[in-house]
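Quick note —
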Amino acid sequence: MKEYLQNNQSNMLELLEKLVNIDSGSTSKEGIDQIGSILSKEYRSIGFSVQVLEEEKYGNHLVIQHPLAKDPKIIIVAHMDTVFPNGTVQSRPFKVEGGRAYGPGVIDMKASQVSILYAMKALIHSHSKAYQDVVLVLNSDEEIGSPSSKSLIESKAKDKKYALIMEPARKDGSLVTARRGKGKYTINVRGRAAHSGIEPEKGRSAIEELAHKVIQLHALNDHSKGISVNVGLIEGGSSVNTVSDSAIAHVDIRITEREQAIPIERKLEKICASTDVKGTEVELVGEMNRLPMEKTARTESLLHVIEKVGEQIGVEVKDTATGGGSDASFTAAMGIATVDGMGPVGGNAHSEEEYLEIPSLTERTELLAKTIAALGE
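Predicted structure written out below.
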């Protein structure tokens, strides 16, 4: 298997270049569907069945498995979208310098798409039937919270024993066994406009009310318990000499334990249930759309399997926790043994310096393929 992957490294990089050089930001349905079309063709060429789930607003999702698969117990989840707008590829296309590859989405997570495909190819080449024990969900909207694919992932994860999530490994090669939960909220404040010079007393400032809310929200921070509340974006008002009649705040919530979700939501609701500026109105919308991925005994057991595979192929496997969110939260919340960061090694995701460590492309693909085989045993 190792020899097969090493002999195909140039083919893997060629496919990666093709994928990276397609703009596929979360709002670029055309680009994502082009990625999906390329991957569908690749999987069908090796005998897999591909179900294309049409989406009107977002890119289409793909559900892939072998026709001989019967009650597969492993789900593999990977996203096709990136955070970059259309035109990014033109300004900085795929390139290789030294032992690294660069380009928009190269590590998050187009390298992972290549890795999954070649893990399936490697299993077939080595005459292992473990490729029949997996269902692949390739979704199109992870970078914006998976609004259209969350229910799909949950439905396909039902009755599965293991979930391998293909976010990239950390810079030091660590896998991810815990993630903080995430919530996104919007606070809409309505006031009453008035000229600030002629009749300010008739106005009711939405911005003033929002200022009270921002202070109260930030007071909810408890970093010692892993709770963070951040008002990261505000907007409001129409002119400097007008008492504002509207203001909006966008709020990011992070929690470490599932039990923290309901209490923090209730505190948000309480803050927004009353006003400090008479005559204003406050509306809170949003949800905790990703519960924390906690490191459970089941996850520990899955990690041990991956560690043993790593020992066999000479890859040091270690794990870590991270504050970022991913689709791993959905499978973990269902009680499924979940390990994230199963993709190749790289860093600086979501930036112009995003990179892939090229040697890890074949190395982590071998780790993935042999983990699938080990779980089948």
